[in-house]
Amino acid sequence: MKKGDLIMKDKVLDESKLPEVKLHIWFEKDEGVYFGHGRYELLLLISELGSLKLASEKMGISYRGAWGKIKKTEQIIGKELIHKENNKEGYKLTDFGKAFVEEFKNYYEDVTDYARERGLKMLSKIFTNMIFVYFLESLVLFESEFFL
Fold first, then answer.
1. CA angle, 28 as apex, 22 and 33 as ends, to 5°?
2. Which stretch of DSSP H or E encloses residue 47?
3. pTM for this entry
């Protein structure tokens, strides 16, 4: 038995054989998408590369599309996420943008951790029930053979 294995009575369930929990989380208002994982990744790349152009290229989206997504979010929240000090420098995250990205990261990790934990509990329960049903079916077969 190794770390991460689930114990079900006398059986060990290897987590590596279980499906992985995947989530797509975003916030939305009537005006459209507020913020989600794609915009989070875009802001991380802008922070890392110092360039909206390079960040959009790396994500495989147009500069105009990336710009539009950021501006739409800024319009909805009423705060600037990125800024450019002058034409010689690229874009940087504002202090608010940095805090927003950090909080979304924490939120996403919390939700993903909970979903993973809850999913494993659900699968454990299902597999435990399957083992119990298998046991009952075996018992019925045994009894029917015994009384024949």
1. 90
2. helix 37-49
3. 0.70
Q: Is there a contact between 38 and 27 (Cβ–Cβ < 8 Å)? A: no
pLDDT of residue 122: 81
Query: How far apart, in whole angstroms, are the C-alpha atoms of residue 43 and residue 52?
Result: 9
65: Cβ–Cβ under 8 A, 6 or more apart, which residues? Answer: 56
The CA distances from residue 22 to 19, 76, 105, 120, 130, in Å, are: 9, 27, 15, 13, 24
In tens, the pLDDT along 60-100 reads 999 999 999 999 999 988 999 999 887 778 899 999 999 99
pLDDT digits (tens, 9 = 90+) for 128-142: 665 545 544 554 554
Q: How far apart are CA 46 and CA 53, in angstroms?
A: 9
CATH of 29-120, one of 2.40.100.10, 1.10.10.10, 3.40.50.150, 3.100.10.20: 1.10.10.10
